[in-house]
Amino acid sequence: MSIRPVTLPPLSNSIQARVTLTVATVSVLLAVVIGVGLCLLVRHRLEAEIFRETRRVATEWIGLMERGQVPAPTPTARAPLVQLVDSRGRVVTAGPMAGDRPLSTVRPTEENRIHDVTECPSSERCVMLTAARVPSLQSGELWQGEPHFVYAGTDQPPALRGRRLELLVGVGGVLLVALWTWTTWRGTGRILRPIDAIRQRMSEITANDLSMRVPQSSGHDEVARLARTANQTLDRLESAVTRQREFAAIVSHELKSPLTGLRTGLEEALLFPEIDPREAIVRALPAAERMQQIIDELLAFARLRNTPCSAEPVDLGALVRAEAAARTTGVPVRSRTEPDVQVLGNRVQLASIVTNLLVNAQRHATRQVEVSTERAGAHARVVVQDDGDGVDEKDRERIFEPFIRLEAGRRLDPHGSGLGLALCRAIAVAHEGSLCVEDSPRGARFVLRLPILTG
Fold first, then answer.
1. Per-residue model confidence as pLDDT tens digits over 61-117
2. pLDDT at 130
3. Which domain holds residue 348?
4. Could you report the per-residue pLDDT of 436-450, keeping only the tens digit for each?
5. Where are the transmembrane segments (predicted)?
6. 19 and 163 co-located in one domain
7. Roughly how many angstroms between the first and final C-alpha of the chain, as a whole number?
């Protein structure tokens, strides 16, 4: 068997690529939202903690200032820069790390005495500080009302300088997005790998070899169920093709004999002038009729399989009584039916089942055939019973196969096609029913079951 080359689908048509791209897009959006929120939160937290400390240092130093005395500043580790500046911008007193230049030019007003600011002088470090105005009462006692200002601050943390925080968060977000995208690509590829194996195997299966099956795992996930369903479909397809091939072989065999006889008779009439043409035609007619019978039954068999039949309510008891009454020749037929046994189906096809079963029973019966119709739960049951030799248990399914004829059938009906019972079962199955042979003390007992018409 030749194996066709397998071509990979374009990347734009790849489920793996589309899923990965979708996840990457969502990841980028989430990373941006989370990154912005994280940066704002970190900045707010750090600034709030620093300004809380600088405010505390500034207000406590102002609170310690008394009449005629300004205590030394008390810087802390978190607020090491502390200054007292007059209204002309001169440093009155300062902590050891604050220097002799004012930390800020911000001058809070009397109405708004405390400001939190960040000063970034050119070419110098940024300072986060609190500018607090000394209350006018204390200014009047200490400096004859001249405004003085207290600055308490600290160098801006490295995380808040420039865009370092955003850069760090951005780099972390990019790494996380890349990791998540790579993980999605690998995970999706692993999930789709069995599906790709199924696709490759399906591309290798041809009508000439239906024995191959797709790889099937032992799990219960969607891929495992897909593989099992595909293998079950292939099993049914292989069985159907095998049955069709066997059916075609049987049909060819059944048609070969009458066709050979017909051709032989016609060739003899052509080769031997002494043969009467009319007599040759008369001898050929039985073979032609047999072929026509086989072809008609084959067409009915195929039409039943491929074409849905029209359905109508059918009184099964009345139909059985009418068909039994029509059997006026041969072994007598006795019917026994229950009233109002309604089924949904095609009247002509159901009648053909009953007719075929009665003809078959009369052919094998010795004295009498009995047919009955009754309710059996949710089904209507038609039983055709003869008093002949019956059917061996090993042959009870074989007789429903096309062209299968037992020895007794060939002896009693040498011109039969072997399609009657097969057609009957096919009609029963098409009506969601069944047809089988059941045990009986004597003779053959054929039982047809059809769903009762409700409502």
1. 888 887 668 888 889 988 999 999 998 889 999 988 888 888 888 999 888 999 999
2. 93
3. 309-451
4. 999 888 888 999 999
5. 20-42, 167-185
6. yes
7. 56
Backbone angles phi, psi at 438, to 5 degrees: -110, 165
What distance in Å separates the CA atoms of residue 260 and residue 236, rounded to the nearest whole number? Answer: 35
* Confidence tier at 227 by pLDDT (50, 70, 90): confident
In a domain, 69, yes or no: yes
- Pairing state of beta strands 91-94 and 127-133? unpaired
Q: Is 215 inside a domain boundary?
A: no
Q: Are residues 294 and 316 in the same domain?
A: no
* Sign of the C-alpha dihedral computed for residues 336, 342, 345 and 346 taken in this order: positive
- Domain stops at, among 305, 334, 356: 305
Distance (Å, whole) CA 301 – CA 418 = 12
**Separation CA 71–CA 141 (nearest Å):** 14
Do both 177 and 53 map to the same domain?
yes
Q: Rounded to an integer, what distance in angstroms lies between the CA atom of residue 114 and that of residue 58? A: 9
Based on the fold, state whether residues 46 and 146 are members of the same structural domain: yes
Whether 299 and 410 map to the same domain: the answer is: no
Contact present, 428 and 355 (Cβ < 8 Å) = no
